[in-house]
Design brief:
Largest interface: A-B, 45 and 45 residues
Number of strands of chain A: 27
Protein name (chains A, B): Sulfite oxidase
Strand order of the largest sheet of chain A: 1-5-3-2-4
Shape of chain A: globular
Helix content of chain A: 10-25%
InterPro entries (chains A, B): Cyt_B5-like_heme/steroid-bd, Cyt_B5-like_heme/steroid_sf, Ig_E-set, MoCF_OxRdtse_dimer, Mopterin_OxRdtase_euk, OxRdtase_Mopterin-bd_dom, OxRdtase_Mopterin-bd_sf
CATH topology of the largest domain in chain A: Sulfite Oxidase, Chain A, domain 2
Oligomer: homodimer
CATH architecture of the largest domain in chain A: Alpha-Beta Complex
Number of helices of chain A: 13
Strand content of chain A: 25-35%
Structural class of chain A: alpha+beta
Number of domains of chain A: 3
Radius of gyration of chain A: 25 Å
CATH class of the largest domain in chain A: Alpha Beta
Enzyme class (chains A, B): oxidoreductase
Main location (chains A, B): mitochondrion
Keywords (chains A, B): Heme, Iron, Metal-binding, Mitochondrion, Molybdenum, Oxidoreductase
CATH superfamily of the largest domain in chain A: Oxidoreductase, molybdopterin-binding domain
């Protein structure tokens, strides 16, 4: 462990990150002078970067609501025929041509905001406020959207192209066109994944396994653990890896190598991690939401070993007896093209509390953390939404304020069903930390034909609650709540609340009347605070589709 | 503070208690030799006292379920005509007479269990297992039920008398009859209460104020704070008051006078206390439950000042660094006729944790705790069910096991809707500690005619969550969830979760369509773990009617 002046280290880190990314991506957005690195850098630096936050999670895309806007899109459809993906950005002889230099003059709202996609030039000025990712769209102002769309693959979507073409104003001069194939793929070095992981999105990679597989094991194997990446997986050399620790406003900074970290006492916890968007696909059926179509398997349970965060914080004088400042930030080493890293924060009490059990993990289920899960160090904040369990940890900052990152401030928050993108004020809701009680039926699956054996069907599933609460009961009904059955809790950790971090696996054998050809199974769990799940998605709907913990309902056909 | 041998103190305490109660009550149950105190004592000591627990909360009464038993009761009704209260226990010429001596021989199940009520003799052997209070009924075996019914006034109930008369086997010999008027009233010295407190039960006293009054003040005035007593209010002399502290199995015992306690640093918290049965009356509408008919006002918010429990525990070497044993018991000085005190326990972590904030309070809202609320010392276990906030605290025991008290083991637990008295196994459910999120509409009231002003109606209410969670949102709907409105959070404590112990008062001004003549308002709250309330009582129904936190629904008439 070595102490270095804070500011110097920070500058060094930022510089390294930027250089790395400018080397990886072969940008086509600044002008046509390829190979001129300085020009490319300048173009980026002048692109109104909102450095404090980053474009968006993969859930953000060019989705447009409102009748008027849809009407325009419909009109565009007739223009561009059916194959929108091929047609979008193609030369249109009815429109004027502009040079890249001309486009680059339209980089502020005052001058209208233009962007380029393939051969197309678009005026997106009026669209900015409808962009789900908000002002972040401005990082492409006056240049090409293509490198960002490579980074956020969700934009490659028929609807996005339809909307885009409604904003078309011209063609890019032939001499300025760069083939998209020349643009480097920041995801090229992502690890190879197990084929059982079904991607909800490829770039960044987000995937879950099948429910039937998930409930087979109390400890989820690393290869089958859901992956929720916001950016490309960074390549980190464990020998040169360093973790920086800073206390804002106070001259207390420390840097730890991986070896330094391993010298601390090793702590192990069994903890379930879950994406706040788990089970989003069900909420989406009520009314559309923005975000990945997660099934019920954006959750997994593992043992995590590493350094206690509180032990590390003691090194800079932050303890539960001296709760300096109010939040602890975690900055990942996964970066976007603007060198902004993924980041999140948790309240100080969770970080210093002896019952908080926050671990800087270097092992997952007894082996080094795999690249997709944060190698070499990820924070495990048990009981708290996956988004705060920052992977590829590069820096910890003790601060008076919450992280200003996009994911802390403008994502991963819950809202009333009455709030949508039109009227949201993100500052009105607290960032999601501890998660509410949830459960799911993993066997059988929706629509499955289930063999009735001697009048019974067999069910399996999981239940979990955040905040260190234990599942005390899982209730099941086949008749919409007229009769409730109690599941058997088959696998549960021995840790007591409020430090019970692991999920519960359950099973049940339920009687079905011989005349039934199909039934709908409902499932709800109760935790050690006696909190239980809400019944229906209608009343907990939120436009980001997070906190989808209504009763799990699975309709099956009976073979009897 | 002085240290005395534990066993000696305990014996002394028990002796004092018993003597006190035998002096207060003028029993008529042992035999007809009134005034012979020794005989009375012996009768009690031989009455198969299950000293470990006590009859019941007032919620327990002779309620009987099952078609067969109802049929018998119906038959009994025709026998006893209409005025069951007058007729019950009256002489019946068709039945034989027994002396008290004969009755006293029937004090065990082997010899059949007989009891006396007025002039009636009853064989309750077959009823014992149906008694909601379970085996506790045996304390009256071979003697009279009357002193117990004086203690637990809920037994004085038409239905109880009806059931009782179905068990009638004879008359008590005329020479053994004692007028009930001779039985002393253990509640005679209960304090005089404010007339705004509407009793749900008189003996023991249980009362709440009106919702409209409740939501008027963030701090509930002491006189208006709900009262939930399980036994008579004990008279305690502050000068001779002593609090004993014991660590089970280890020779660490301490005794503190009130002055000793006041020498510790004074801590103050603002905390809401709520009975786990709050809002039971609503659950009861779905299907009957056992317990007091609480409205939504068995809740109140106060500032509590006193000694931190963790400071006291340090005196006997129990700290968060040395979590000796697993539970902390609290024994009240309120006693039943068997000298068993009200008692409950909490897990050790809550007692020693710096964020647990458990206070041995000697002040409530800046003045000495009133007699109804635990004078001179009550435990305030913030975020935890009222039942664990033991009043008139006499003793603290650090123990390996939970309290064995009736209220810890066989009451204040939550069950699935499929569980009833017929099939309950109390050991299957954890005792209620931290409470789930709840809310209520205090204005307007159910059925109220509300004046619509310029198209709007005004609402007020409260919301709260246990476990130190803060209310982050209150949602309201007038159209069964099609449209949700967000309430204004008007009054809230500044303490952060997980130490946010106080409730939130909210208000809203909601638009109503001019054509509506009546509306049903639904209310739900969301806490800082993003837990929310379940929708309907049907799916959270439990036979004790606790944890009644479904959406609050209030139907009103509109004057417009």
């Amino acid at each position: 462990m070595s102490l270095i002046p804070m500011r110097a280290f920070r500058m060094m880190l930022n510089r390294q990150c930027r250089i790395k990314y400018f080397r990886t991506l072969n940008y086509s957005n600044s002008n046509n002078e390829q190979g001129n690195e300085n020009n490319r850098k300048n173009a980026f630096n002048s692109s109104h970067l909102l450095v404090s936050a980053l474009i968006s999670s993969v859930g953000y895309y060019f989705f447009v609501t409102g009748k008027k806007r849809f009407a325009v899109a419909e009109e565009a459809k007739t223009h561009v025929k059916n194959d929108i993906r091929t047609v979008a950005g193609q030369f249109r002889p009815d429109l004027p041509s502009y040079s890249m230099k001309e486009v680059s003059k339209h980089g502020t709202k005052e001058n209208q905001v233009w962007v380029v996609y393939r051969e197309g030039v678009y005026d997106i000025t009026d669209f900015i406020e409808q962009h789900p990712g908000g002002e972040q769209i401005m990082i492409a102002a006056g240049s090409s959207v293509e490198p960002f769309w490579v980074l956020y693959g969700i934009h490659v979507n028929d609807h996005v192209f339809e909307v885009l073409e409604t904003l078309r104003i011209g063609n890019l001069s032939k001499s300025d066109i760069v083939n998209v194939a020349d643009v480097g793929d920041p995801y090229a070095k992502d690890p190879i994944r197990h084929s059982a992981l079904k991607p909800a999105n490829m770039k960044p990679f987000n995937a879950e396994i099948s429910p039937a597989l998930l409930c087979e094991s109390f400890i989820t194997p690393n290869e089958l653990f859901y992956v929720r990446n916001h950016l490309p997986v960074p390549e980190i050399n464990p020998h040169s890896y360093e973790l920086e620790l800073e206390v804002e406003g106070i001259d207390r900074t420390a840097v730890f190598s991986l070896d330094d970290l391993k010298k601390f006492p090793k702590a192990t916890i069994t903890a379930t991690l879950m994406c706040a968007g788990n089970r989003r696909a069900e909420m989406k059926k009520v009314k559309t939401v923005k975000g990945l179509d997660w099934g019920p398997c954006a959750i997994g349970n593992a043992t995590w070993s590493g350094v206690r965060l509180r032990d590390l914080l003691k090194q800079v004088g932050v303890t539960e007896d001296e709760e300096i400042l109010k939040h602890v930030h975690f900055e990942g080493l996964d970066l976007d093209v603007t060198a902004t890293q993924y980041a999140a924060s948790i309240p100080i009490w969770k970080a210093v509390d002896r019952r908080g059990d926050v671990i800087l993990a270097y092992e997952m289920n007894g082996v080094p953390i795999p690249p997709d899960h944060g190698y070499p160090i990820r924070v495990v904040v048990p009981g708290v939404a996956g988004a705060r369990n920052v992977k590829w940890l590069g820096k910890i900052v003790v601060s008076e304020k919450e992280s200003t990152s996009h994911w802390q401030q403008n994502d991963y928050k819950g809202f009333s069903p009455s709030i949508d993108y039109d009227n949201v004020d993100f500052s009105k809701a607290p960032s999601i930390q501890e998660l509410p009680v949830i459960s799911a039926i993993c066997k059988p699956l929706e629509g499955e034909v289930v063999k009735v054996e001697n009048g019974y069907i067999n069910l399996k599933g999981y239940a979990w609650s955040g905040g260190g609460q234990q599942i005390i009961r899982v209730d099941l009904t086949l008749d919409e709540g007229k009769t409730w059955h109690i599941a058997s809790l088959d696998a549960q950790d021995t840790a007591l609340p409020p430090q019970h971090w692991a999920w519960t696996l359950w099973s049940a054998k339920l009687p079905v009347a011989p005349e039934f050809k199909e039934v709908e199974i409902w499932c709800k769990a109760v935790d050690s605070c006696y909190n239980t799940q809400p019944e229906r998605f209608e009343n907990i709907w939120n436009f980001r589709g997070v906190l989808s913990n209504a009763y799990h309902r699975v309709k099956i056909k009976l073979n009897q």
